[in-house]
């Protein structure tokens, strides 16, 4: 787990703001769900001992309840829907930290932030298109160019079950070719084998049957509509029949956004899909759902790699240097801030030289200097810190308008 220091932290917040600016005008309202839930809320995320469920931080709280830190946001949103029974369709978005006990590496952390959106109560494939398109639009707004969208359909639960059977039979026949860890995965969850990046497993995976051959008419029709919708919106995508994703609740549409600038192990900057059974699993009525989650930390790494969505240090309008004891600086910063200006100051009654050094380092456009003479005369000295502007002594009463009129400098 990491600390996120300023100014990086402000950039992460701006990213969430940008997400809100994309999804709120599309009818999504912000929902806050708890970071800790009863462990049962997450029971549908993976077969025992597999995938996200094996990475959960679980513990007993002081009341003897078995709880978990959320490894993702979707299940909590479904729990919230089951509890409050809002009128469907329920279009919500959320953001915040998630916890997975994974091996940390670049782009993979044990505490990481996601932005997430979900729609509950609509089965229409054109909603899948809306959800996928909103994620696409978000990445475009950040300025990311090298994002690849991959889509798949896992079919209806029955199709998927027949497929898993055929896949397990195929992989079982070739089990001696597979890595020992992969054989374990095969025993727990054959689909997840398709996710294996191990060289040794690739021949058996390439020769495996593909899900497309198992679609019912309904599933095939749904997937067809999704692709037609994406085509109509001009959103480029690849169909990847082996895209299974790390969570077990999916049916029909699944998708991922891959950042081509990132190395392939951790290149998924977002993903999602349709699910059912989640709302029911937490006591609600049968409810179709679809959503996506985008990894904030990983997306910012992709932005760095592409040189987009840069850090924007807060530009200070002024830095107050007071060598009369500091009380004047207290009054001035308070007045200037009340007028909407961004202002900092020096403390500890340090020397003029030391305070000017701070002013320099602060990146402020000007230093506002108060010495004994200025204090007596009711004036201040305004010294531009950049360019070749002259320093000027002005009446204190004119300071606010003087600063508001000054051209903005960015450092
Ligand atoms: P997910 O694919 O597990 O899906 O996570 C979504 C995104 O979160 C990933 O693409 C990645 O960018 C980021 N992420 C996941 N794990 C980590 C980690 N350990 N460190 C850094 N970033 C990470 C879900 O979470 C589903 N809830 C998505 C969804 C919403 N499906 C339906 N609705």
Quick structural gist:
36% of the residues lie in helices and 22% in strands. The protein is α+β, with helices and mostly antiparallel strands and 411 residues long. A hairpin with a 5-residue loop joins strand 3 (58-60) and strand 4.
Cα shape:
elongated
Listing every helix as H and every strand as E from the N terminus to the C terminus, the arrangement reads HEEEEHEEHEHHHHHEEEHEHEHEHEHEEH
Q: Using only CA atoms, what is the Rg?
A: 28 Å
Share of residues in strands: 15-25%
Q: Write down the overall mean pLDDT.
A: 93
Largest sheet: 8 strands, mixed
Order of strands, main sheet, comes to 1-5-6-11-10-9-7-8
Q: Uncertain spans, ≥5 residues at pLDDT below 50?
A: none
The count of β-strands is: 16
Structural class assignment? alpha+beta
Helix content: 25-40%
Count helical runs: 14
N-C termini distance: 32 Å
Bound molecules: histidyl-adenosine monophosphate
How would you characterize the overall build of this protein?
α1 (8-23) runs antiparallel to α3 (125-142) and α3 (125-142) packs parallel to α8. The chain starts with 7 loop residues before the first helix and ends in a 6-residue tail after the last helix. It is built from 14 helices and 16 strands. A hairpin with a 7-residue loop joins β15 and β16. The protein is an alpha+beta fold and 411 residues long. The protein has an 8-stranded mixed beta sheet, with helices on both faces. A 5-stranded mixed beta sheet has the order 13-12-14-15-16, with helices on both faces. A 3-stranded antiparallel beta sheet has the order 2-4-3, with no helix packed on it. The chain has helices at residues 8-23, 74-84, 125-142, 157-173, 180-188, 190-193, 202-206, 217-232, 278-281, 296-306, 327-338, 352-362, 372-377, 399-405; strands spanning 29-30, 36-38, 58-60, 66-69, 90-99, 111-120, 147-153, 238-239, 250-259, 268-275, 289-295, 318-322, 343-345, 366-370, 379-384, 392-395. Histidyl-adenosine monophosphate binds next to β6, β10, β11 and α10. Histidyl-adenosine monophosphate binds at residues 72, 74, 100, 102, 108-109, 112, 114, 116, 118, 245-247, 268-273, 275, 291-293, 295, 297-298.
